[in-house]
Amino acid sequence: MSAALDHLVVLADTLAEGAAWCEATLGVAPAPGGEHPLFATHNRPLAIGSAAFAQAYLEIIAVNPRATPARRRWFDMDDEALRAQVRARGPRLIHWVARVPDLAQALAAWAAQGLDAGVPLAASRMTPRGLLEWKIAVRADGRRLMHGCLPTLIEWGGVHPAPSLPESAVTLDALTLRHPQAAALQRALDAIGLHGICIEQAGTAAMRARLATGAVWAALDSDF
Fold this sequence. Notes:
Blueprint: E1 4-11, H1 15-26, E2 34-36, E3 41-47, E4 57-63, H2 80-89, E5 92-99, H3 103-111, E6 119-127, E7 130-138, E8 152-156, E9 170-179, H4 182-191, E10 198-201, E11 206-213, E12 216-223
Parallel strand pairs: 1-4, 5-8, 9-10
Antiparallel strand pairs: 1-5, 2-3, 3-4, 6-7, 7-8, 9-11, 11-12
């Protein structure tokens, strides 16, 4: 199996606030996104692909106030403490998603390590470029594992969103994960063939994405 970083997840209190943050922080507006009816969320993506992270993108996501979820939202988006932090501090990097060629096989590999990453769900969203369809593993409680450092797993259908996103001057240079259980986190990524992520032992969990924005660098940080 060969997995890869698919996208970074930035949670915003509102989608408008997230788009404004993106322009102020990275110097570029995100592309139009779409809605996720199953989870009552909506997003705006930004292409950040690089030689090291092909087809990677940044997903700015927020609760859709016009919709009602059919289940608990993904990425801990129903966690009131997390939402309060975002309201107080602004949009923040909270998670990342890895794409795999066979979601069932990847989930089985993690289950063998005692990791319950959820069950495959069929999801879709309409975009200005047409319908995107995918399978994604989400726990019934919507919880991220290992404080968000262990990625959510996704298996795309016939179309990946990245090639149709507008080009941007922003590229992903590195993703660093810091966690008290760094060895276990490394084993989990090795089990699905995911390489190129820096993992460091630390007393508390944190993520840092290093992005090139033209001639300067930007770092998106998150502590849990």
